[in-house]
Amino acid sequence: MATDTDTAPAQTHAVVLDALRDRQQKVWSSGDYNKIAALTVPVAETLVTETGIRPGARVLDVATGTGHAALAASRQGARASGLDYVPALVGIARARAAAEQLDLDLTDGVAEQLPYPDGSFDVVLSAIGVMFAADHQRAAAELVRVTRPGGQIGLASWTPSGFVGGMFGIVGRHVPPPAVTQSPLRWGTTETVADLLGAGVTDVRSTVHSVTQRFTDAAAFVDLFLAYYGPTHTAAASLSPEGRATLRADLLAHAVASARPDAPRDHLVLDWEYLVVHASRRQ
Asked: Is the torsion defined by CA of 156, 162, 163, 166 positive or negative?
């Protein structure tokens, strides 16, 4: 039988994570993510293609953002739903679905508490989304819970060793995250995702991909992300003018060092590595 002493640490931890989630929601609501989101369209489309979604399948896109994976699944004839905790992004996803005359069920909500019954979906996806959940274990458990037995889970996440992983490392050195924060890059390793999904899944497998990005030059990339991408925008805003200048210089150096060496000299070409993990919900 649990006592007050037993439950107090768990309650405290939950309060801390709720506060972290609120903070993260504000981060992703800052800047203008819609100006960045187009860069990840190929990631979502690759995830949907590799997962082999069929017409009529019930599909959920967790942390849908502006709806990339949900829209891609719907174009394949799936009965697609999407959820995100930034209402403005859900609104953009609705507008995109309306423009394409796609029937999407889009709602506001958090990955750690999905508002769906057990086993509601044939396929559960997240493209560069659930990796940013405040509570990784709860979010993973929810992915498994709402997938039907025998159904599929497909996740696409930036890798620790890739370009975006390096960018996160630079930002974290300038503005360390709260102590309770779990690195989103944990989702970019197969072993960690397998551990998070746990005994409820089987046949965990992964493939590494990259999406090619092109910018006028390194400064164009850095200034775009400092102005509009929530994590870098918020980090820069918290620094002094000198600190912002140093952060910008470090990001510039990272972009220059990571540029594809065989690219034309008139623009910057970057390859952003990500991991696609598939798992089957245990029968």
From this structure: positive
pLDDT tens digit at each of 283 positions of the chain: 545 555 555 556 667 777 888 888 888 888 888 999 999 999 999 999 999 999 999 999 999 999 999 999 999 999 999 999 999 999 999 999 999 999 999 999 999 999 999 999 999 999 999 999 999 999 999 999 999 999 999 999 999 999 999 999 999 999 998 877 899 999 999 999 999 999 999 999 999 999 999 999 999 999 999 999 999 999 999 999 999 999 999 999 999 999 999 888 889 999 999 999 999 999 9
* Domain-located, residue 254: no
Instruction: Write out the two tokens for 168.
Output: 């996160």
Taking the C-alpha atoms of residue 85 and residue 101, their distance in angstroms, rounded to an integer, is 24
Chain length of the chain: 283
List Cβ neighbours of 83 (8 Å cut-off, separation of 6 or more): 60, 61, 62, 63, 64, 90, 106, 107, 108, 109, 111, 114, 115
Q: Whole-angstrom Cα distance, residue 271 to residue 28? A: 23
Helix axes 218-228, 230-237, angle to 10 degrees: 80
Structural domain containing residue 48 = 4-160+178-211+272-281
Place of tokens 């003018």: 241
Q: What pTM was computed for the model? A: 0.91
Q: Two tokens at 14?
A: 């939950």
The pairing of beta strand 147-158 with beta strand 105-108: unpaired
Is there a domain that residue 203 lies in?
Answer: yes
- CATH code (residue 60): 3.40.50.150
Distance separating alpha carbons of residues 100 and 86, to the nearest angstrom? 22
